[in-house]
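Escalation from tier 1.

The customer reports that the assembly of two entities below gives different structure tokens on two consecutive runs. Tier 1 could not reproduce it. I'm attaching the input and our single run for tier 2 to review.
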Amino acid sequence: MVLHDYQVSYAGDCDSEVQSCYIGCDDEEEADACESTYYYSIITRQADYLYDLCGRDVYSCDAAFECQPDDPSCTIDYCDATSSEDECTNDITS
Amino acid sequence: MICYGSETPSFFFFIQADWIPDLLYYAHLPAIALSLLVGIFVFSNNPSNLLNRILFFIALSFSLIAVFNLITWTNNRSDIMIFVWSLFGPLQALVSILCIYFIYVFIHKKDIPGRMKVIFTLLLLPTFLLAPTNLNLSGFDIDWCNAFDFEGALYNAYYSLLGLVAIIWNTWMLLSKYYKTRADSVFKKQIVYMGIGVQAFLVLFFTIFYLADFLATIHFVEDSRLELYGFFGMTIFMVMMGVLIVRFKTFNVGAHAAEALVLTLVLLIAAQFTYTNGELTTLVLTSITLVLTALAGIFLIRSVRKEIEQRSELEKLTAQLANANERLKELDKLKSEFVSIASHQLRSPLTAIRGYASLLADGSYGKMPPKAEEAIERISESSKNMAYSIEDYLNVSRIESGNMKYNNADFNLKDEAEKISDDLRPQALKKGLSMMFRSDLKSTGVVCADIGKVIQIIQNLINNSIKYTPTGSIKVLVRDDVVKKRIFVDIEDTGIGMNQQSLDTVFGKFERAHNANSVNIHGTGLGLFVAQKMAIGMGGEITAHSEGEGKGSRFTLELPLAM
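Tier 1 run:
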């Protein structure tokens, strides 16, 4: 069964001024328009590597939010307005 | 890794948080308790029964799915969650196959053939072999604490498809057996209960689970809380199993069925506590209901136990009686065989005794002195009585062994009855009795019967009248009913008569009217028994009528008219 050999994904940092970010909503209540937004990228990497790096608590580990050179499994995905269904911030490449 | 912002649960799945669905524990806990309860009760009561074993494994597999599902809802550790998440596929596939196996064994009352076992194994194998691979689950989202985005679409479709296969296969097996079973059969009702239980479970569980997972994967809904309704399928399944256990003794679990049922009710009511949100009125009402149910349950269990003990005692006694009855039949058969052999052995020497006595009486060996003549007459009379008795014993033996043969042919009953009356009239006159013959026929009086046996019956009845009538008369009347196509020979006398008790038993084997010995001590009590059996064998019967002791009797031989 799946124990260690799997990937984890989580939200990484994203600067909407220089990167194309996914847009998340912080509102507690569901509403038509979001009042408090945040920007994020998606980091995906092997679980066992991340565990060795940060232990169980990923969110208080700075190293978790950047890809190490010796970790080929790590990828950081930014929002691609042409392929993603999610709403993106301005695409800096355009 | 710990999911973002999630609380750590106690005992793997107890957590209090706003985002927890209201139905979470109410959907899981009673279903788990109920399935384990019924599964363990059924299995522990009769582990050798294949159907019981399969039900136990279905309950166990389902409970594992439910516990793992609860863990995925409440846990915050990715390693634990991805491990249990990866087991959903193999377990759901196992439940599907076990349900097909269960219905097959229930319907055919035997194990599946080896070829089908191979098919089941081949169907299950991919789900187990591929479970630890990326084809099942490749990752985990620790932000949202789920693995929907990492589920293998093909793997997911495969085990969900097995659920659909189980639904279709079971429907086909249940319906074809239902239509082949007799309408008044108890098994037909069992098929209905079993069908509702298993199919409701499969349809609710697999369709809702697949739908909830699919909608969450395409992000149409935020989470898969819809799947909670799928667990109620197991409750329906187990309730139907409970009905089968209590009403039809399907799993042969005896008194434990009542205990399981009461415990289930208590558990279901107790499960309401998980849904009360701490409201005082609801808490109090639920507590009162729980206590009252528990008390009523204890009384119910006691009375069911008592009833089952009595029923079991009764069943034991019935079995003993059946055994004793079989033994008696065996002994009766042996006795008939013995009587037949013994009677045949007696008849040959008796024929010689009667023959030589007759030769002595008619002077073939010269003139006998008067004293010797009297002795010879006694020998003749006694041997004649003995011959009649032996014939009776032989007839009883033939009747009881089913070897009595009837050579039916058309003959005129009125003529035969008249001839017999004429033949026996001198005997009656010798005793000082008058004897009259009369006929009142609308038909020709022809019957299709064994003439020898009919003559024997009428002779027997008239002889009886002569024997048991000290003074008075004997009347023989032949009459018919052309509408009912029946003919009757009434032999009516002014003899000793019979009371009701004697009338009830006079046609029994070795039965004689209690006052019979007062006028005749030689009867065997077999004559009327044999006559009645012969009459029945020819489609007729003999009835007896008497106003009481000392008021005479009327015996009527009834036969079908040949028209």
